[in-house]
Structure formats: structure tokens, C-alpha cells
Amino acid sequence: MSSSESGENECMCWAARDPSGLLSPHTITRRSVTNEDVSLKITHCGVCYADVIWTRNKHGDSKYPLVPGHEIAGIVTKVGSNVHGFKVGDHVGVGTYVNSCRECEYCNEGQEVSCAKGQVFTFNGIDHDGSVTKGGYSSHIVVHERYCYKIPVDYPLESAAPLLCAGITVYAPMMRHHMNQPGKSLGVIGLGGLGHMAVKFGKAFGLNVTVFSTSISKKEEALNLLGATNFVISSDHDQMKGLEKSLDFIVDTASGDHAFDPYMSLLKIAGTYVLVGFPSEIKISPANLNLGMRMLAGSLTGGTKITQEMLDFCAAHKIYPNIEVIPIQKINEALERVVKKDVKYRFVIDIQNSLK
Fold first, then answer.
1. CA-angle at 296, arms to 231 and 298, nearest 5°
2. How far, in Å, CA of 256 to CA of 214, rounded?
3. Per-residue pLDDT tens over the stretch 245-294
4. Element spanning 43, H or E
5. Where's the Enoyl reductase (ER) domain (predicted)?
């Protein structure tokens, strides 16, 4: 590697060094651009609860130093000789994975998130060359073009970042389960980064949207800021009873443990309940499922095909996440606030103006 190349591959970032999860400035080396790679200057990176989980080693598999961030937006600075989908200057996004086997049935369908050999996560993953992947809290990233997305040029980069995890996590199952039918009714459980996007997509699809929350403080914002049709405190037995068999769909974004049966009862016959959060267990009365002919489905982010579709949909319908933009110097404080659910509704790091 020539000295000019090594300078080009050097990358400023913020990394956690141990399970305290405390992030501080660090330098890493990115690979050189190969034939099918795209190198992008990162302008923005969304802050996801996943960043908390892995910086703090909550799953016991964190590899330090760890550079989090998998909601990445930026501008192409270099492309490999075989890259045809992107050119220098394009606005691009990178989401939760940066590699897959590219030959299994799922990869062939553009559903790489379900790759038979396992998707390679954007950070703390093991790439095919054996290296540990480093995420978007960094100045640039080099990614195979297949895992890059075109961000429409009139769509703000800071708004695009949260779509790449929070957005796609709700959009993919909503499309898969045909929730884009105007006039139908959707229940959204939890009003955080994912929940607020489910409300926005629901409205864009022409659905009547009911938000369920344990916190009355969210009522005002659910109805007035996000434009939900209805707001229900889930612990209010009478309110819940009044909604029995009234919803076509439910998207459950709550990560904490909660009862499922009270919500399941709100679905119409043959209604669909999609879970995208990770509670410690799911308990449901079989009668609730069987007698109601209801469906319980899980989902993770989404393949490359549906992710690109979602970005184009958001640009066409002018759907923007509600974000709080922060400099990277405030990241430790922001992660603490994510834990406390004190953000409306997604932090986005202004990498280009603060990572120096």
C-alpha cells in the first residue's frame, strides 16, 4: 500500500473501548476500494438502540474497539471500475448490513437480510475477509455497491439516515402484509424511532392510525405532531375494551416486556400483528390466535430491493423522520438519553461538521 493510499484509507471515528460503552475519538483503517466498491464520505449517521446494545456488550459478543452506527448517509467520493449504479457525487445510504453470500435464494430475491449464510452486520460483524466491520460513527466507509442505496438528491441526508434502520424495520413488514390499503385501520404500539415512522407510513398509506402508549405525555405529539387518528393509553381497560375487533393491523415496536393478549383482542378476525421489537418472551392465549384466525408475524430490517423502494417512497411522499441533530461530541449523552427514551424521535449525528 502506497503512502498516499494509506492516508486515503485512514478513517477518523468514535469508538467504545470496553463495556462501559463510553465513546471517544479513534482512528481506523478502511480497505482500499476494489472493483465493485463504493467509498462514501459520511455526512450523517442515525443513532439506534443497537448502538447502545453493542457498545455496552449487552449480548456478550462485542469486539472492541467498537465503532457503532448503521443508519449511514453520505456522498460518493470514489467508485470501483465495475460499479455502474453509482458515481462520484451521488447521495447514498448504507443500512444495517454490508455483505451477504450473494448466491442463496434470499440474496437472489433481493432479500439479503435473510441470507442463508448470514448477513454481515455494518458494525461488529465479521466480513468475508475476516475483518471486524466498523460502523458509521466515522468519516468514511467502503461498501460493495450492492449494499448502498441511492438517496434522491432532493431528500435531506440527515433525514435519510434514520430510514435505513428505523424506517425500513416498519416499512418492510407493512408492505409484506399489505398494510398499504387506504381506509383500513392500523394500531401502533410504542412511539419511539420505529413507532413514529409506522405512524407516518400508515398515514401515507391512507390508514386510520391509533397509537398505543403507556404514557399520557405522548398524546399531544401523537395526535397533533404526527397526525394519528386516535390515541389510547394501553393500561386504560375501558378504552381498550371499546376497541375490541376494530383493527386490521398492529405494528408492535415496544422493546420492553408487555402483555400481548390485550392487543391481540383488538384485531379484527384474520387481522395481522407484526412484532418488530425484542421483548424477552411472547405469551399469547391460543384461543385469541385461533378463534380470531389472527396472524402473528415477526420482521427484521429489509432486503436491498425494499429498502430502495422505501427511500423513493419517502422522497415522493415527502415523509421525513422527526430528528434531533447533534455533534458527535454529544454522543455519550445522546446514548444515555436513548436508554431513557428521551428523544423525539431519532438522534442523527452531524458527522461532516463535527468529526474533525
1. 95
2. 11
3. 999 999 999 988 999 999 999 999 999 999 999 999 999 999 999 999 99
4. strand 37-47
5. 21-349
| Burial category of 32 from C-beta neighbours within 10 Å (exposed 0-12, middle 13-18, buried 19 and up) | middle
Q: DSSP 3-state assignment of 300? A: coil
User: Which residues is 322 bridged to in the sheet?
Assistant: none
Sequence-distant (≥ 6) Cβ neighbours of residue 353 within 8 angstroms: 327
Alpha-carbon distances of 204 from 122, 234, 235, 351, rounded to whole Å: 29, 25, 28, 30
User: Grid coordinates in use for 65?
Assistant: 474497539
Partners of 297 in the beta sheet? 274
Alpha-carbon distance of 40 to 77, in angstroms, equals 5
For residue 19, give the C-alpha cell: 463495556
**Whole-angstrom distance, CA of residue 98 vs CA of residue 95:** 7
Cell 485512514 identifies what position? 10
pLDDT in tens, 189-224: 999 999 999 999 999 999 999 999 988 989 999 999
